[in-house]
Amino acid sequence: MNILGVRLNLLIGPDPVALPAPIRMLEALAEVEVSHSDRERSGFRLTFTVGRSGPTDLIDYELILNPLLQVHSRVVLTAIFDIRPRVIMDGLVTRRDLVPGDRPGEGRLVLSGHDLSIALDRKYNPTEHINQPEAMIAAKIAASYPQYAMLPNVRQPPLSTPPLNIEHVPQQTATDWDYLEEMAARFGFVTYVKSGPVPLQNSLYWGPPIAPELPQPALSANMGPVTNVSGLSFTQDGLAITMVKSSVKDALTGQTMPVFSVVPSRPPLGLVPTFFTGFPSLREVGMETTGLNSLEALARAQAKLDSSSDNVLMVNGTLDSTRYNDVLLARELVDLRGAGATHDGTYLVRSVTHKIARGGYTQDFTLSRAELGAKLPLVRVA
Predict the structure, then answer these.
(1) φ/ψ (deg, to 5) at 306
(2) H/E element holding 220?
(3) Which pLDDT score, from 0 to 100, does residue 21 have?
């Protein structure tokens, strides 16, 4: 239960510094929108009211001239539930829009930006990673950004073999972020920057889409006074799952080996896997395997199957933040109850959009899983 309400704290300043926003700036802040997704870079939008009402505004709008509200400024947003702070964004401003308006009070200044992954994507960085497997490279890249307190959270991929420099040396011919995503795609992994748990601290995650963590507090629908979600909709896609069937001429042995994906390798979130119930009708595709050994080809075939199974059952809805008394985190698990036996249970949170204004805070979300029905009759409620 939320007693003290929800408050928003804003830190802003020239990268990499972020300082408490002045009172006049906070008074002009009209709306905040923050978007998190497991498929693309997280972003934010700050909307300020602007006007020219005094002698100090003869030259230009006060907020336009403010050195804190410039492109490339660092922004840290923290939602405080009662006395619990939750960092919802640490990022950089990449765009500034001004709409003067035709009447007093209609002017708007909008700052848009992305999370700190944009800082890893700014400079081309050709590098050799001698005798280093992908997980070690990811940890090394995270450690190279101390100005953002970037801690590595790296998981070891399956079917990974350390490269020997007598065979080949991993070559990075891209930005750090592009290379992290390229390595992650080989194993069906994801990579993203997570803000918090305290302001000005971040972590770089590189690993499977579903991290081994406890589900978040449950989302409740149609349950009277404990209801915290509305507008639920469910979509099941029978063509989502894609199997791979191919072959590879092993770069080490020279022999031709079959390549195929058997079953999804990710832990099931529901009771009845749609992979087995729809097996006769599943799509089958080929895959390019030139230059790969058999283990690398099998890992990439499995990654294609795992990634396609993410889109089988999709859920959309809106969360009342005050009733939920917390933020819903994208890329983590959450339980849903009150939607019926087929759709109740545990899901992966695919995306969350925070919409904050005076007097209101909602979170629009998208969930997914590859199974029907709940595995357990219990959920976490707090």
Answers:
(1) -60, -45
(2) strand 216-220
(3) 96
